[in-house]
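Review this today:
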Amino acid sequence: MSRVAIVTGAGKRVGRVLAEGLLHDGWTLVAHVRRESDEVPEGAIRVAADLADGNAAAEAIFAACPAPPKLLVNNAARFAVDGLDAFSPQELAAHMAVNVAAPALLTARFAAAAAGEGDRLVVNILDAKLSAPNPDFLSYTLSKAALAALTTLSAQALGGKGIRVNAIAPALMLLSEGQSGENFAATHAFNPLGRGVEPADVLRAIRFLVDSPSLTGETLTLDGGQRFWRLPRDVQFLEP
């Protein structure tokens, strides 16, 4: 049996690129999706579950694993537009359920399944905006900040069990909901390097973390240096 990996949100966008790349690398992949109609890359083990129901989703995902997994990528996320002027406790709770509580439950199940056997890795997908915060997408940003804290705390808690926990924080990679194609073209590479971040960059970062057995509790920020500019708003609301 080859190494088993779990990727949440593996049916589309960045998650699909990660799933395809890990399959190419020889991993046995458990690909989580939200809806029964969602497809996954050929060769993956498909699991449909709503991460808002964290316990049931974790049960379904780990039941599909043919062996204790060695890699967990918490990629799936809720992303909705809000701000302080339209703050909703219900929207915050929905973000926290998917973006924080579900990764916490999956990480706990991952640790229980490991049973202290060898090097294992959890990778949480954050957002580069945490390095230079702005008030747009308030509930999403708060949830990603909490996930960053979870990364540190779980790395501390699980290091003695041979489980590493790290994070990757990418900047804008793909067209966002409500964003025009023209705005995306103008802002994708809006950073000091003048190079847009791609999903393949996240895949390369995961491969680096897999091959770095002494690295835990760290965040790799992939933003072309955009954080140094301290932008006052999310890039899709700017006119570069």
